[in-house]
Design the sequence.
């Protein structure tokens, strides 16, 4: 009996030692010599591997930063300025401040604003619906509401509102990585400047059809009438293909365009209530 | 037009084949086997089958409702199949509480933890059975003789299965010829007049069920055929090599759970390969393992273990044996 | 009897209108002719608002290699050229013509006699077909002349005429074969001459026994034309499946039928070719099956391109009360349309109105790994696997599983007992893999 145990112990230990020796030599042979700064940079990064920086994961981003030894065009949207400040000393550079961004849904075609003309029955994928037909509200530019953006978001920052059928961005959680922008087959989502106190003004429509056509499908579509362009003193608004666009670099958040829009397609977010609230309600009533 | 038009991708029609139909089809195919077991083992068989089915359905209901919080899936019939198969795999004098524990393991552990029907890698009924076999080896291997104790619930007259007789006998050094006089003749084995689990006694009833499933296109011939053929050929070779040590192949076909395993367990869609070539490999593997365990293993019966081992290999088989694609082999003529 | 080997399903035929003779429908008040009538680049309009046009006059010219001409289907005045909702469900550029009378171009031979003699040479035939704007009328609408131009280094050995019509409900090809058999045979001979072969097979499924009998009789007098009866199986009308069924040759993955020396044309296309070459008549009308289980009077209608489909539905007894889905094409591969305010296009083989209880999809349940989808896939793919790849967004794997071979016949979704939306998912994978391949090519 004793010898059996002895044999077992000897065999197992010798296999163990042998394997350790083999592993040691193989590890020596295949050793990869890496710049230690890559590890240092990777350590600082959030490690979400969201791809928001434009590279394949955080490690790849770190490798590229160290290789170029520069922070130019290298920005981690998730970590933001804090992370840049941490990375900069590692590669001996100074980080420049960047304005925080946020994802914005540029479609307001809710169930109420753009009533359904058909009903979809099939797999829940915006990509599929987009290739199949214009969508239940017949607007070929509108949000499809099947939630490809929700699936793409790694930060749980976007969800579909059951009442409107439109996605809603959670301002606290959104890190502006841009995954939803890429996932949206209709290019409805845009990354915009987050703005002071998270205040934003934007045209909530991407419809390029003529006003007469788009208005049939949606009560709040931009018809490219140009009233906002005239109203804007800062030349922040341009119209192209029947669609107004507000340049967030030039916009001063004066809100004058919001008041003049006949379609109520310019949205303001997180502003305090207006003193005279008539204008906006009037517009809505006119529409009805 | 009453409503808004519906939009969906093609195709716009659906065959009338449904999961429910398939599952209840299997239940129907199991009816002859159940009836035979009721006939031979009487009241205890009926009680065991009903308990097992009820326990399986109940456990599935409880898990879907309170743990997974999903819509209940009990109507699809898969829990009923597991319940019946589990009951068919135990001796008729098994205490009911053991069977309920077996059902809990089958449904709770082997099926629902993976996400329910279609996601389990192992056949739930077999996992339940093997769990009981390991936990309660005495109760699981004392086989009441058929007919004699149809109305008795406890203290049944028990005896070993034919496979057990042979295995023990050979281990003691007896020759096959001598042992053959202790086992039932082939006709009895075919119709089921022998000791064994509820469902494995009658080859005929199982084959009828199998033919029904073939006819309804629930199973294909690939797995049962290769499984049985492999066992037949392998044991045939052994018998040819030394008839005094190895029993003849026909005995192997009829004894034990081979028929039940090959026709009802190995063909379980969820846990078998997805391509026809893969199915052949799967059946072959099951056959080889069964014979290895039966002839040289510690247990007299190896079908359940063989199928479970092959279940574990299914993902590999799926990877290695894919269906032939159109336009892959260029053949002009 | 011949058929293809790999996979296939047997959906119920439901050929409700197979004994209804083709009926020409009246002229619409206005014809709205979409510029999206074929695959490839859309043609450029050559008429302007206010122009007078005659039936058969060229109104849009296809300039690209894969592109085809469009002709006026009615006579009258072009009232506008603008974006209008059309068969694709999107607003696309359409030419709207207000109908005045029915004045045909003088060059078109309107006489009913059948012209048997083929005078034109090979190149002239192809030029004529290109001029006449003929596209594959089976539904794919690939420009016919492109298919007839045999690429260098390849040799056509036989012509295959597709009279299979494996889609349930549809009967337009069946009626064409029965009613216009003689013209069809001439059309086949023209096509044979165009690609320079002396063998042609007309494949017909044996649920159309009358058509097989009739065409076999006609083919007897024509050397080289054989009618091949085929076992009923969907999707036998698929090009690759039909070639496999008739010649037992397998078109290699990712290649065209010419790789195995075959050219496949639909029977409707053959008739259009006959009319274009012998009668000088461009393609401006087609046979559309209007059908459905609750449709009062399922029928086969000869309609001008650009006719509003509401006119066709009216002819069939109006839209049934319980209609929940209207499909352009058959139930297996057709497209459900989002409005009935659309117009007949060259690729519209049928209009199917589905009652409410049949148009809702069954709620999908878990895949039970029954492997039915892999057994019935006519391309031998693993639909369950590709569907899984879509759900896990693993496009690279889907490409390896040869998702691009899928022809979207719908057999997998049709057969799945768990009612999983397999084809929906496969389409997503196909589109995404297509994008990847295109960017890689750049």
Sequence:
């Amino acid at each position: 009996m004793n010898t059996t145990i002895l044999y077992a112990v000897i065999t197992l230990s010798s296999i163990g030692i042998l394997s350790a020796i083999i592993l040691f030599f193989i590890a020596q042979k295949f050793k990869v010599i890496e710049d230690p700064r890559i590890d240092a940079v990777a350590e600082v990064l959030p490690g979400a591997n969201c791809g928001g920086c434009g590279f394949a994961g955080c490690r790849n981003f770190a490798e590229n930063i160290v290789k170029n030894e520069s922070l130019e065009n290298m920005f981690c949207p998730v970590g933001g300025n804090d992370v840049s400040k941490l990375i900069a000393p590692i590669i001996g550079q100074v980080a420049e401040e960047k304005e925080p961004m946020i994802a914005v849904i540029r479609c307001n075609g809710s169930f109420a604003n753009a009533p359904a003309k058909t009903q979809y029955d099939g797999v829940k994928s915006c990509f599929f619906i987009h290739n199949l037909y214009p969508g239940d509200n017949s607007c070929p530019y509108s949000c499809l509401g099947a939630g490809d953006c929700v699936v793409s978001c790694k930060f749980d920052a976007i969800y579909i509102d059951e009442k409107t059928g439109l996605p809603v961005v959670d301002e606290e959680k959104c890190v502006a990585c841009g995954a939803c922008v890429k996932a949206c087959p209709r290019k409805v989502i845009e990354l915009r400047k987050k703005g002071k106190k998270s205040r934003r003004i934007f045209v909530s429509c991407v419809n390029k059809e003529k006003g007469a056509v788009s208005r049939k499908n949606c009560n709040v579509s931009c018809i490219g009438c140009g009233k906002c362009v005239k109203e804007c003193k800062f030349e922040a608004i341009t119209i192209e293909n029947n669609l107004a666009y507000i340049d967030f670099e030039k916009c001063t958040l004066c809100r004058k365009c919001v008041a003049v829009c006949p379609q109520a397609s310019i949205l303001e977010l997180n502003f305090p209530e207006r003193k005279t609230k008539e204008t906006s309600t009037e517009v809505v009533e006119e529409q009805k | 037009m009453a409503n808004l038009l519906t939009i969906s991708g093609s195709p716009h029609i659906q065959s009338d084949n449904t999961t429910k139909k398939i599952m209840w089809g299997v239940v129907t195919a199991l009816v002859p086997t159940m009836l035979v077991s009721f006939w031979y083992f009487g009241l205890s068989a009926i009680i065991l089958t009903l308990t097992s089915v009820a326990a399986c359905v109940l456990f599935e209901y409880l898990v879907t409702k309170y743990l997974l919080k999903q819509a209940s899936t009990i109507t699809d019939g898969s829990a009923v199949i597991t319940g019946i198969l589990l009951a068919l795999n135990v001796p008729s004098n098994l205490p009911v509480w053991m069977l309920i524990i077996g059902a809990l393991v089958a449904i709770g552990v082997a099926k629902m933890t993976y996400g329910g029907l279609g996601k389990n890698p192992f056949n739930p009924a077999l996992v339940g059975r093997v769990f009981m076999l390991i936990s309660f080896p005495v109760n699981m291997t004392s086989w009441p003789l058929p007919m004699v104790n149809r109305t008795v619930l406890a203290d049944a007259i028990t005896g070993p299965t034919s496979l057990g007789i042979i295995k023990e006998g050979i281990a003691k050094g007896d020759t096959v010829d001598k042992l053959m006089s202790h086992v039932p003749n082939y006709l009895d084995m075919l119709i089921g007049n022998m000791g064994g689990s509820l469902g494995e006694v009658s080859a005929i009833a199982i084959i009828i069920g199998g033919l029904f499933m073939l006819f309804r296109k629930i199973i294909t011939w690939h797995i049962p055929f290769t499984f049985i053929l492999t066992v037949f050929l392998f044991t045939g070779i052994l018998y040819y090599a030394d008839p005094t040590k190895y029993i003849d192949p026909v005995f192997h076909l009829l004894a034990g759970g081979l028929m039940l395993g090959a026709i009802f367990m190995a063909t379980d869609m969820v846990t078998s390969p997805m391509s026809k070539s893969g199915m052949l490999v799967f059946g072959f593997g099951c056959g080889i393992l069964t014979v290895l365990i039966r002839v040289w293993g510690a247990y007299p019966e190896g079908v359940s273990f063989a199928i479970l081992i092959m279940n574990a290999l299914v993902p590999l088989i799926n990877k290695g044996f894919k269906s032939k694609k159109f336009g892959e082999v260029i053949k002009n003529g | 009897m011949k058929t293809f080997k790999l996979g296939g399903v047997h959906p119920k035929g439901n050929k409700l209108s197979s004994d209804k003779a083709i009926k020409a429908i009246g002229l619409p008040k206005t014809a709205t002719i979409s510029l999206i009538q074929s695959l490839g680049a859309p043609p450029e309009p050559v008429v302007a608002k206010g122009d007078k046009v005659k039936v058969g006059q060229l109104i849009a010219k296809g300039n690209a290699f894969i592109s085809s001409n469009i002709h006026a289907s009615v006579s009258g005045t072009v009232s506008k050229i603008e974006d209008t909702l059309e068969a694709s469900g999107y607003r696309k550029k359409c030419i709207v013509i207000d109908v005045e009378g029915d004045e045909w171009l003088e060059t078109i031979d309107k006489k009913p006699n059948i012209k048997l003699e083929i005078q034109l040479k090979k190149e002239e035939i192809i030029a004529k077909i290109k001029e006449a704007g003929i596209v594959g009328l089976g539904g794919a609408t690939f420009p016919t002349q492109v298919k007839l131009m045999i690429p260098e280094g390849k040799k056509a050995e036989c012509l295959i005429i597709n009279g299979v019509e494996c889609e349930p409900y549809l009967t337009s090809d069946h009626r064409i074969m029965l009613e216009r058999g003689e013209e069809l045979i001439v059309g086949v001979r023209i096509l044979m001459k165009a690609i320079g072969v002396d063998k042609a097979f007309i494949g017909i499924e044996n649920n159309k026994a009358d058509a097989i009998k009739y065409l076999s009789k006609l083919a007897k007098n024509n050397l080289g034309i054989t009618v091949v009866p085929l076992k009923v199986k969907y999707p036998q009308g698929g090009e690759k499946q039909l070639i496999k069924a008739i010649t037992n040759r397998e078109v290699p993955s990712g290649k065209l039928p010419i790789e195995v020396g075959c050219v496949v044309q639909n029977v409707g296309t053959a008739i259009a070719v006959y009319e274009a070459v012998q009668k000088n008549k461009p393609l401006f009308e087609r046979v559309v099956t209007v059908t459905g289980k609750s449709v009062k009077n399922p029928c086969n209608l000869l309609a001008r391109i650009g006719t509003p489909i509401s006119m066709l539905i009216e002819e069939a007894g109006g839209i049934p009360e319980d209609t929940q889905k209207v499909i352009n094409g058959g139930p297996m591969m057709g497209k459900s349309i989002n409005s009935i305010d659309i117009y007949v296009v060259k690729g519209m083989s049928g209009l199917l109105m589905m009652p409410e209880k049949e148009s809702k999809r069954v709620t999908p349940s878990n895949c039970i790994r029954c492997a039915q989808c892999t057994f019935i896939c006519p391309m031998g793919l693993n639909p369950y696997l590709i569907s899984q790849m879509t759900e896990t967004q693993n496009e690279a794997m889907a490409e390896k599983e040869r998702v691009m071979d899928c022809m979207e016949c719908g057999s997998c979704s049709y057969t799945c007992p768990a009612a999983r939306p397999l084809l929906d998912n496969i389409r997503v994978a196909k589109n995404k893999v297509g994008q990847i391949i295109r960017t890689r090519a750049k």
Summary: The longest helix of chain A spans residues 2-29. The CA atoms of residues 69 and 91 of chain A lie 6 Å apart. Chain A has a mean pLDDT of 86.
